[in-house]
Design goal:
By secondary structure, the chain is α+β, with helices and mostly antiparallel strands. Helices cover 67% and strands 9% of the residues. The two termini are 56 Å apart.
Length: 404
Amino acid sequence: MNASAPVLTPTTRALAWCLHLLIIGLLALAAVRAIVDSRPQAGTTVAAAAACALVYLVGPVLPGVRRSRRAATLWLAAVGVGWLVLLALSPDAVWVAFPLYFLQLHLLPRRGGLAAVAVTTTAAIAGFAAHQHSFSPAMAIGPALGAAVAVAVVWGYQALYRESEQRRRLIEELTATRADLSEAQHTAGVLAERERLAREIHDTLAQGLSSIQLLLRAAERALPGRPDAAARHVDQARQAAVDNLAEARRFVAALTPPALEDTTLAGALERLCATTSARHRLTARFHLTGGPAPLPTAHEVALLRIAQSALANTVRHAEATTAEVTLSYLGGHVALDAVDNGRGFDTDRLPAPDPEAGGFGLAAMRARAHALGGTLSIESATGQGTALAAQLPLTPPTETETCP
């Protein structure tokens, strides 16, 4: 009935109505008994019972009593005064003390409630003894036992309520934490998928478009003096466009790269070297060492993409004449090496990635290798060519190993 009281639930509302009906019923019983027994002060008793009931009924109606502990205390005092008057007139009013215990313990602080219950118990015992014109221990047992039961019930209910509130808060926190975790996982998944898409686009479509651009430039330089060479470059550019269109369609469908269909990783790498040699002024050769072992699809895709990106960088930047691609099976690991005789570069002065100039290839290759628990190393120096080595474990790493 005040701000500090628990929020009413259907169960507590039912209990509150039962308490209201009990008090009104006991007051009505005192009035009816006074009339039926033809007591000398029957009219006064009925009036006192009616006044006490009226004061009591005001409490649940007034919003101030429900919101303010001070207002609830004043209301309880008024009800208590009315009950004392009725107790002085009728011994039957002693039964009203029992529901009053619950009101006092519920609306007042713990110490105040205990004090009010003690005063009510004393008044009930004294009033009943005065009407009986005698006192015996049996007269004190009933009110005292009722007070003890009320204290035990109310305090037990409050303890259960506090525990249920604590559990409710914990459940709310758990729900909020689960929602935050779900959102974080969703965000992490989105970022991981974006990173994967960026690597796929860079290693397939972007490299293919770059190859087409180089071939068309070569065709432009061959015109008009060498129309046959220009036509050959245009035909190669057209074939590169067809291949990249197939890559794009399979990429959208999230299927295995076309280069790996109906062939092994070694076959795909050999064909990549042959295609690169045919389209550009670069002699790319493939070598296989060790006994081939079955690889997970993710390993094959990663090694093929790394080789594609490495050869594309060689064509665009290295000005190399030869490139050697080697696939090696080394017991528990598989390695891919790409070596060229180009102009090389300073590995400590790599340009920052730029949407116009590129520069995402090395980061994408390293990310692919690390995602599968492998490593990628680059050795190069100005004028001394470049050597790239990627190594992956044949056993896929666990989730905890790939988290860093």
